[in-house]
Amino acid sequence: MRRNIFLFLLIALTMASCAERRPDVKNVIFLIGDGMGFGAVSSLLLTDDSTTAFEMSPVIGLSESCSANNYVTDSPAGGTALACGERTLNGYVGVDVNGRPMKSILKKAQEMGKSSGIVVNTVLTEATPADFYASVLSRSESYKIAEHFVESGVDVAIGAGLEVFVERPDSLDLTKTLEEKGYDVYTDKDSAFGSQSDKFVAILPMEDVHRRNVPDSLIEKRAEAKLYLEQAVEKAINVLENKSKNGFFLMIESAIIDGYGHSNDSDGMVEEMLDFDRTVKQLVDYVNTHDNTLLVVTADHETGGTAVAYKEHQVGKKVPLTLSFSTKGHTGTVVPIFAYGEGAGYFGRVMKNVEIPRTMELLMKESE
């Protein structure tokens, strides 16, 4: 509580001391690049000769990614810090160090009358998205997480992972429960992206949400999967911006950066960051044409100890980039924050991971 009061006073004093107007943050887009550290960002900057979305960022900060009990966080604890504004123990999802449920920034946005959404290129019940709506002691409690998802109150959600909703030991079909709650439920991409519904959940096959799940031989299918995140984000925003006059909160996770870090896959990491950049550019374009919108891009942690390897090339004739890795696990190094749009200036500093959602909350409250 004291930390929240201090942060509120810091923002208030900063605004009072600046000549610019007070921020009016109506919409918040929170994009988490799972495992995206400075090595991953470097792989993009040194590969793409065009201007990347990161270079468009007017504000850059740093986030300390520790958990409550380790310098190196896992995804459940790292996501909990970003979702709930409190550090917890490694392994915990949306609960504090004593196992008590916490309220996420998504839930707080709902209480402010905002529409809300989740878009991921992994399963909807994976640790990071689950941190925004579930409260369990382990990411392995996927059936329970699915039950919490049904009660999440989000207006739109797009991802994968149908099995834990329908192939359950209790024989429940949670897609039917979602329908009873007024959702349209889709299990194929065409129906989801063509939907006219203002309240829907799309639980798609894994091969639709990321190219890594598609065999190399299926070239056209892989090309379609590369576009999934951009298309899903566009669809979600179209639904959310028309849903509430009070604005919206959208959580997005690009999850597979982490996977390439774990597998120490240099080529995969480079390709993934190029794909990630397209989604960020799309969001930057949206922010630039929609007042009162804040976009924050960061990571829950760094994966792989990823760095740029020594590789000589001729002046003006660069060779393909090679990355080096120091581990197949996570590291405790700080991760970048890129902020755009309304209120972005409050993220241009060294922050603890928990301060990111706290700052979002206070900026949204300022606009009420």
Structure description:
The protein has 368 residues and is an alpha/beta fold. Helix content is 38%, strand content 18%. It has a ten-stranded mixed sheet with strand order 5-6-4-3-7-1-8-13-2-14, sandwiched between helices. Helix 9 links the parallel strand 5 (184-186) and strand 6 (200-204). Helix 2 crosses helix 14. The protein is globular. The mean pLDDT is 93.
Average pLDDT, all residues: 93
Order of strands across the main sheet: 5-6-4-3-7-1-8-13-2-14
Q: Helical region count?
A: 15
Q: What is the 3D form?
A: globular
Tell me how many strands there are. 14
Topology as a string of helices (H) and strands (E): HEHEHHEHHEHHEHEHHHEHHEEEEEEEH
How much helicity do the residues have? Answer: 25-40%
Structure in a nutshell:
The chain is an alpha/beta fold and 368 residues long. The chain is 38% helix and 18% strand.
List keywords for this structure.
globular; 10-stranded mixed sheet; 15 helices; alpha/beta; two-stranded antiparallel sheet; 38% helix; single chain; 368 residues
List the helices and strands and how they pair.
Elements: H1 2-17, E1 27-33, H2 38-45, E2 59-64, H3 75-84, H4 105-111, E3 115-123, H5 127-130, H6 142-150, E4 156-160, H7 163-166, H8 174-180, E5 184-186, H9 189-193, E6 200-204, H10 206-209, H11 219-226, H12 228-241, E7 248-254, H13 256-262, H14 266-289, E8 293-298, E9 302-303, E10 307-308, E11 323-324, E12 330-331, E13 335-341, E14 350-352, H15 355-366
Parallel strand pairs: 1-7, 1-8, 2-14, 3-4, 3-7, 4-6, 5-6
Antiparallel strand pairs: 2-13, 8-13, 9-12, 10-11
Helix pairs in contact: 1-15, 2-14, 3-15, 13-14
